[in-house]
Design goal:
The complex is a heterodimer. Chain A is mainly alpha-helical. Chain A contains 10 helices and 3 strands, in the order αααααααβαββαα. Chain B is built from 10 helices and 12 strands. Classes of the chains: A mainly alpha, B alpha/beta.
Chain lengths: 201, 299
């Protein structure tokens, strides 16, 4: 087998591991050997297992919801293959949550926003106030995620705030009765809190 | 330069070491009386703000009154074709500045390509091009820190690369050209033996074992017939026998290190962990009586 240039080897292996491109006849025979090998899939599986283990520890709420939706493996796989993967657990958690906040599933997006806000306030020391719109009452959902129970998504839509100056750092500040008002005039709506709740109860 | 040097006629005593990724005061209290070195990984000491955790550094500094500290890095990506990962060295700068380190080591592998993290570590190919890249890099590291620097053999999970040199010949060339030391992971050798038919006996026969400063032992699992480098299980008897075999031929070996995944600590429990640590330590029995290289029993 002829030697393979170091850059060609490493770039080729990166592309195979990340599933970036298909090999062509111009690629070295070794890369074709790797592509056809069962070890490549195992290597990817292990890389994804490490990411999943880290995310289970750093973003447990979001991962629990993705697990309950049956999509955690697929989400972690896409995340691991995407550009910008960071080995630092905190950075990886931040990037993963940012992806999940863009989910079409509005409950996944809300839980990811909530967890990202908690990280910002409790870990990073942010003084910002975060507002999160939930498609349902968050309390039964959070209970279910924390205690590994079946998730029952039930109305009303709610708005939650996360901030360092809130006891427990978060509270549900408004339900569907005032949600339109909250969207249009958040400051005025906040003064009509319908159901303040402490986080650690 | 701080090349790994022999100590005249005297061979060093091989000490017992264990990986430690604190802060974990309870674990540290248990293991400190039984180990001579703690092997720390700077990458794992980084906090949420991207800086080294002050509490972790303080704990290690206090521990250094009782044990030696050695660094084993995972984040440098020493063998990337483009460049190594400089931020790791910034972390190591702080660690080396604040803690008394006996030596440090890094894997002969790459975790990044063009700066992008792979999510795994792959070994260096045994090529002339790799040697040409590694020799000046290792020289720079040795100049930067003034500490003995070791390189560790990495498991090949993929089919073996096309090779210009045997594994041992490549390592010999590297250590000869740079005067760096070797961290020989005998569990990794067993993985390569199982997965890629490495002839461990022939490898050891060819390897310049006088460059071995440290030996890693660990245990793992097999998946789909592939032995994985996960450090989740106690070392198998075969791994410890291999370590003893290497120790008998490695007069400069300073440490025998039990590698253990953080996640495995609560699974094993402290009693099991301590029992395994002592089991590994038994590989060193008789070693202290064999200090002189000129002794017939050491030849």
């Amino acid at each position: 087998v002829p030697p393979i240039k170091l850059a060609d080897l490493q770039l080729g292996l990166r592309d195979l591991i990340k599933q970036r491109r298909s090999l062509t006849c111009y690629d070295h025979s070794y890369l074709h050997q790797v592509a056809a090998s069962p070890q490549l899939a195992l290597l990817r599986e292990i890389a994804e297992w490490w990411r999943k283990t880290t995310l289970d520890a750093t973003v447990p709420l979001t991962m629990a919801l993705l697990n309950s939706r049956g999509i955690s493996d697929a989400e972690v796989s896409q995340f691991t293959a995407a550009p910008g993967l960071d080995p630092n657990p905190r950075n990886a958690a931040r990037a993963f949550l940012a992806r999940q906040t863009q989910q079409k599933d509005s409950l996944v997006a809300a839980v990811a926003q909530f967890e990202a806000a908690l990280h910002a306030v409790r870990i990073d020391g942010s003084q910002d106030r975060f507002r999160i719109e939930w498609p349902c009452d968050p309390l039964p959902v959070l209970n279910a995620l924390l205690y590994n129970r079946e998730i029952v998504s039930q109305p009303p839509e709610c708005v939650m705030e996360v901030s360092a100056d809130i006891p427990g750092t978060w509270q549900v500040v408004i339900n569907n009765e005032n949600i339109q008002l909250a969207r249009c005039q958040p400051d005025r709506a906040a003064r009509h809190q319908s159901r303040p709740l402490a986080a650690d109860n | 330069m701080a090349p790994v040097e022999t100590e005249g006629e005297l061979a060093p005593i091989t000490r017992l070491a264990m990986t430690y990724h604190g802060p974990d005061p309870a674990l540290l209290e248990e293991i400190l009386p039984s180990v001579d070195f703690l092997e720390i990984t700077p990458d794992t000491l980084v906090g949420h703000d991207g800086r080294l955790r002050a509490d972790a550094l303080a704990e290690l500094k206090a521990a250094s009154a009782d044990v030696g500290l050695i660094v084993h890095g995972i984040g440098l990506s020493l063998c990337s074709h483009d460049e190594w990962w400089e931020p790791y060295l910034h972390i190591l700068d702080v660690v080396a500045n604040q803690l008394p380190l006996a030596w440090h080591s890094e894997h002969l592998g790459f975790t990044r390509v063009n700066g992008e993290f792979l999510g795994t570590m792959l070994p260096a190919p045994n090529s002339d091009e790799m040697l040409d890249l590694l020799v000046p890099r290792i020289d720079r590291i040795q100049q930067r820190y003034g500490l003995p620097f070791l390189v560790e053999n990495v498991v090949q999970m993929l089919p073996p690369y096309p090779q210009q040199h045997s594994d041992a010949a490549f390592l010999n060339s590297l250590t000869s050209a740079t005067e760096c030391g070797l961290l020989l992971d005998v569990y990794n050798l067993r993985c390569d033996e199982t997965n890629n038919n490495l002839n461990v006996g022939a490898f050891l026969d060819q390897l310049a074992l006088d460059r071995v400063w440290e030996i890693h032992v660990a245990g793992g699992v097999q998946r789909n017939g592939v032995m994985l480098d996960v450090h989740s299980r106690p070392p198998a008897n075969e791994t410890l026998h291999l370590a003893e075999q290497v120790l008998a031929q490695a007069p400069q070996a300073r440490a025998l290190t039990l590698e253990l995944l953080d996640e495995a600590v609560p699974v094993w429990g402290t009693d099991r962990l301590m029992a395994e640590l002592h089991r590994v330590g038994r590989c060193l029995q008789g070693r202290d009586t064999c200090l002189r290289l000129s002794s017939p029993t050491c030849n």
